Amino acid sequence: MNRRQTRRLQSAVALTAVLSLAACSQDGPLAPEFESARASNTVEAVPGFSVMTWNLYVGARLENLLVITDPSTIPFEVTKLVGEVMATDFPARAEAIVDQIERTNPAVVSLQEMSEFRMQSPGDFLVGNPVPATDPFMDWRVILDNALTNRGLSYSVVAQAMNFDIELPMVDFSTGGLDDVRLTDYDVILVRDDVRWKSAASGNFEAVLPLDLGGFTIPKPSGWAAVDVRLDQRWYRVFNTHLEPADLPGGGVNPQLAALHAAQYAELSAIMHRSRNPQILTGDINSAADGSSTPTYQQLLQEGFIDLWVAGAGAGSGYTSNQEADLKNPVSQLFHRIDFILFRHPSAKKTGVLPGPAAAEVVGDEPADRTPGGLWPSDHAGVVTSMTLFNRGNR
Question: Residue 233, exposed/middle/buried by CB under 10 A (0-12, 13-18, 19+)?
């Protein structure tokens, strides 16, 4: 019997005790009084305002393009990457992701690396006067929406930030010429259709990463999306973002990328402070909870955010990243916690305590969650939390 099956069979007990974040380690064991609540305190057992965040994974390691030194090899490397994206089969992975949406029924779903691929044939990227590719190839928003609709689940994209928009040549083996493939990356917020929402907004950070692709410099912006949602007689401002990673593969932090990451977070922090509603920050923050990468996670706690994974007594380590690039590793390789759902409220900000019960789960992290073809739903696991606040302010 796997961990999720065990959790489902155990009695549903709402966690009503208050939890001081200062009293426990973010990645370490909880205080004894909360250990017994781990297995039973699932999102299904503690109903309330439920939120999911998940980095969907574009399907290939795009950073492999950064090692190109000869521009003439770009089309061949891009063709290889497109093949890897096809092999990681987002339509099948979308079904596995919808499995978790259907089970946990979140009111809000925040997704990162939502990808849209478009083509142009023949391509003219190397001619010097490129025309943007517009022919639809794969749009993950459409694929995911179809999967939701086929299950009778009603969600709508209410806010999205368009991040990088990159177009590069690839080999057309049928003609021997070149096509252009265009990848556009989004952070999106979906809201369940029975939930009220308003004031959707999005933007890009001024701090932009310049990518060097075989002598071409291409900007890679990141951004944020936000929307107000009304649940449990109050409005919440939900943010979704994907900050630039700064950690090095072998450990440690790249100083330049760390500075870029910090600049993006400073912009995001200023934007979040403009809202008077209780705030929920979701996303791939790319700051490890154990402090091994950037200090952003600790700064968020210092600014009054409560980590709902900790407050919800999530079972296990809570690790969310990363599986192998091809998603075929038989044993999960998740090794750190960088995907978060964080909550800030005036009363909670003063005390560091969530004023009500909460629950948290990692999803898409067990072998049973994989596609029929054996692929993990993403190289990240998702996080789902649920909470209910006792006080009724901000109606």
Answer: exposed
User: Is the Cα dihedral 367, 369, 371, 376 positive or negative?
Assistant: negative
| Res. 22: pLDDT tops 50 | no
| Separation CA 306–CA 287 (nearest Å) | 15
Length of the chain counted residue by residue: 395
Helix axes 90-104, 140-150, angle to 10 degrees: 50
User: Angle at CA 144, nearest 5°, toward 388 and 200?
Assistant: 55
If DSSP codes are grouped into helix, strand and coil, which group holds residue 242?
Answer: strand
CB atoms within 10 A of CB 217: 8
Q: For residues 357 and 225, which has the higher predicted lDDT (pLDDT)?
A: 225
- Amino acid letter, residue 212: D
Taking residue 39's Cβ as centre, other Cβ atoms within 10 Å add up to: 19
Domain boundaries of the chain, sorted by first residue? 3-387
Tell me how far apart the alpha carbons of residues 177 and 198 are, in angstroms, rounded to a whole number. Answer: 48
CA–CA distance, 351 with 22 (Å, rounded to integer): 10
Per-chain mean pLDDT for the chain = 85
Distance of alpha carbon 293 from alpha carbon 284, whole angstroms: 13
**Domain 3-387 in CATH 1.20.1600.10:** no
Q: Which residues pair with 51 in a beta bridge?
A: 108, 385
> Residue 234, exposed/middle/buried by CB under 10 A (0-12, 13-18, 19+)?
middle
